[in-house]
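forwarding from the other thread:

> can someone predict this with zinc ion?

sure thing
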Amino acid sequence: MKLSWQMMLPLCLSVYLSHSTITFAAGSPSFSSAEHVAIGNNINLYFDSDDPGHMATPLHMPNGLNLTYGDIVSLGDFYELVNQPISQGQSEAERRSRFLAAFSSFALNPNAPTETTQILNVIYNEQKLLDDGIKRGEKPEDIYKSIGHENDRQFNCITGGGCSPSTWWLEPGRYLNLANMDYDHFGEHAWISYSTGHQLALEQAVVAHQTGDLKKLEMAYAMNAFACHFLTDRFSAGHIRTPRVELSEQITPGTVGSLLSSYMHGEENVNGLHVHNLNGDKWIAYGDKSYFSPQTSYHRNMIIATMQNSADQIFAAYQQGTTQVNDNVKDFIPLPDETGNAANLDISPLFYWDDTTKKLMRRSDMQNLNDRHWTDNWWGWSTLLELQKERGLSDEAQATLVLSSLRDQALQAGLITNKDFIAYIRKNQQH
Ligand SMILES: [Zn+2]
């Protein structure tokens, strides 16, 4: 897909107009679940050479669940091993075993169907609210605002965590615990997670070829759909440049680094990024919760083209009986036009990892999105205080602090402002 810069001009304008506002959108690990479902259900699956292709066809899991390709793409935010991101596995064998364990936890586990169905019902409801609102002429971003964190609360409740509307953040279920270590959903880590699962799916397709068993081909597609959760996240503007893992690893304690990464995630999501890929395409990548917005259609098509290419390789491996298929998904991946300390087209990165000096750099003037100065002389805690003062701190971020060893320090510094959280702490101190 090629698009000239002249054709993209209206897109550029709309992005630049939004540069004047800073919105802090923390607490959203990736595309919304309904976005993931919509992306996946646009992919055609083939089962024989004359097949015209099927979208949103049910794939049959061994535990009895029937899931569409899109359903499975969305499940990447719900089914992983807590504190064991796929991309952080020390060896390929460990990464493969983590991917398979995550996949099995909803596809094979006999106890999964009840929970998975509950999760999907919340997602379908989100989709319905979006569809109905868009039909009435409402903007997707306004519909998301009205949904607020209600879906997150339900996801947390369903996955074993707190359900109370005011304090659910303080009792993390698997959903929140996974969101707190969402490394697999960012940058190179998303690519590693995808590649690990895609390779396993190709191998499964070869088994389907050898046995002639179409159910095994369905499983190969299902595994690929799960891998593609991370591939779609790799396209989201806030996930492309944010040094998510470096912030957690270099800042002490890592909790503070994680919270800082969500500020950068929010900035880049809102403002979009000029990107290109090895195929020679150039476009603007948009962030989470913008998939259904009209101005993002080119970006949307790029994601779908990439996902279709990935699924087609599964079919090719099935037909040819080999994993050695023409694998060129990497050529579709958006690379930022500007990295490190380059900042002419896009906002200046709030943080970047300098690979030469092995230092984590921070924008000097954090409130000026176009400040082109960075410093290595900064501290995580004071940076957090400054950002919180200017932009606030989300409930999820405050809850993370309440649950960490930084709780008292955060209370003293005025970082915990949620009255329900403060009351919850007092109540628990009395017991
Ligand atoms: Zn994700």
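The pocket of zinc ion is lined by residues 29-30, 76-77, 185, 229, 233 (CB under 6 Å). thats all i got for now
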